[in-house]
Hints:
The structure holds 2 protein chains of 2 kinds.
Chain A: H1 8-12, E1 19-21, H2 23-26, H3 28-36, H4 38-41, E2 44-48, E3 57-63, E4 66-72, E5 78-82, E6 97-99, E7 103-105, E8 112-114, E9 119-121, E10 147-151, E11 154-158, H5 166-170, H6 174-182, E12 189-191, E13 196-200, H7 204-210, H8 217-220, H9 222-233, H10 243-248, H11 255-261, E14 263-265, E15 271-273, H12 289-297, H13 299-307, E16 313-315, E17 319-322, E18 327-335, E19 338-348, H14 353-367, H15 372-387, E20 395-397, E21 412-414, H16 420-434
Antiparallel strand pairs in A: 1-20, 2-11, 3-4, 3-6, 4-5, 7-8, 8-9, 10-11, 12-19, 13-19, 14-15, 14-21, 15-16, 16-17, 17-18, 18-19
Chain B: H1 10-25, H2 29-33, E1 36-45, E2 58-62, H3 64-75, E3 87-92, E4 96-101, E5 106-119, E6 122-137, E7 140-150
Parallel strand pairs in B: 1-7
Antiparallel strand pairs in B: 1-2, 3-5, 4-5, 5-6, 6-7
Bound molecules: FE2/S2 (inorganic) cluster (FES) and fe (ii) ion (FE2).
Fe (ii) ion binds next to helix 8 of chain A.
Amino acid sequence: xxxxxxxxxxxxxxxxxxxxxxxxxxxxxxxxxxxxxxxxxxxxxxxxxxxxxxxxxxxxxxxxxxxxxxxxxxxxxxxxxxxxxxxxxxxxxxxxxxxxxxxxxxxxxxxxxxxxxxxxxxxxxxxxxxxxxxxxxxxxxxxxxxxxxxxxxxxxxxxxxxxxxxxxxxxxxxxxxxxxxxxxxxxxxxxxxxxxxxxxxxxxxxxxxxxxxxxxxxxxxxxxxxxxxxxxxxxxxxxxxxxxxxxxxxxxxxxxxxxxxxxxxxxxxxxxxxxxxxxxxxxxxxxxxxxxxxxxxxxxxxxxxxxxxxxxxxxxxxxxxxxxxxxxxxxxxxxxxxxxxxxxxxxxxxxxxxxxxxxxxxxxxxxxxxxxxxxxxxxxxxxxxxxxxxxxxxxxxxxxxxxxxxxxxxxxxxxxxxxxxxxxxxxxxxxxxxxxx
Amino acid sequence: xxxxxxxxxxxxxxxxxxxxxxxxxxxxxxxxxxxxxxxxxxxxxxxxxxxxxxxxxxxxxxxxxxxxxxxxxxxxxxxxxxxxxxxxxxxxxxxxxxxxxxxxxxxxxxxxxxxxxxxxxxxxxxxxxxxxxxxxxxxxxxxxxxxxxxxxxxxxxxxxxxxx
Lengths: 437, 164
Ligand code: FES
Ligand SMILES: [Fe+2]
């Protein structure tokens, strides 16, 4: 067994130009190192600020495997704090989200903290006099994540001081978030509809790769989307195509459709499918929406916003967004072979409810633990997680449409069935994994 | 159905609910689908005490077309997540009749249950309440709405592939 900790060469050798070693998916040590490096040197999605509209509102989540709280401070600013009491480690909040008022109060010994994490009060404070308490970790209050960036409502954080600044890390890839937000006539999104949580017995990166895997829908989803197409064929002639059928049918599009949709890669592991069109391009018009957009932006700009139908945008390391339907999936790593997938949906402020209704139907049909499309995919991930234990071949192939001239950290638009975006993710993985070693 | 001769008895309602679960356990899915009225829905809320299904998402909110897609899919040759197939098992408390209204043609039952789904070496237990809203349609009882509230509806689940 190779030991990876402190062994930059061994880690780098896991990622080759066109293949990656299975240890990136199955090794517990690699997983631990990912948490300490990939999830610390990059900007990781924390949450959306509409989840915490008022001072004192908080939302609990994780960065990698680190429990954190996103909280709205008294002055309106969003802070991200580690969710542990500086005294004995107790988790500070009782609920997953809520309002804590002007301060957090630890339920164990009642130490209290302002909503920026600073220590407010300790009962029987005298007991700490002349003990050097001010110099202790505990005396400084709840630890805060230093690097927090709120991009038009989307809150990201970076645990380490190392790693690129926010704008440099995302650069032009922010255009996908922009398009999702601009689809609101008010230029604002709100988390809405509830979050679907789906446990996967596989490595988190399998899910991330799947987001730009355009050679699987017509194969793996033949069982679900293909059946939907068949069942719909038997509908009485003249029946109006239901929303659900509109959602399922494009999954069965032929290879050319996916080849022609195009893939764009960006530096630092970001990229997206659907440069020219996507499975979301041909949904029915929602009455009144275009008029609202025209009123807000003018016709030309409204048209430009709505003509952009990007399919899946991957933000490295672990989220994917679908701009045209305002959906965001977080692939939360739990262990090398366990991932919690959260699928969040947003309301376009000032747009018709029918858009949210369609988004929720999409989420339910595709991303729920009860979703047939979800069943198709998870079956493949779990089989891969198992199959990777075969010693005869420890390599996963990501060679499709590889060009030896391909360079890391570049912007390119290419054939929609390329695995370049997967290679892009692994080049970024290698970089951020070893950046501070 | 306003004619009393055609109206169901309380026992008819209870038997219907119990037999419905049995059809699922025995994989008689096509017969099971026929228990639904043409405008019937199967609803599995995501939130505790959820009151609507349009602007709050659900685990399932499916009309007969979507249910038919599921039933067809379960038989499919390339339905790999059902190779091998899942099995399931219901244990019901006796359904309690909450509404028994011939004039409105509406019969509502409430049935606490345990549901087990298995596949390969995995077995998962769910506890839930089923609420059936039934009506007489062309002389037979049909499901207008089957609502299944899982006790831990908001927990992170793995695959749930059959019907509770
Ligand atoms: S553990 Fe929090 S106050 Fe003691
Ligand atoms: Fe898929």
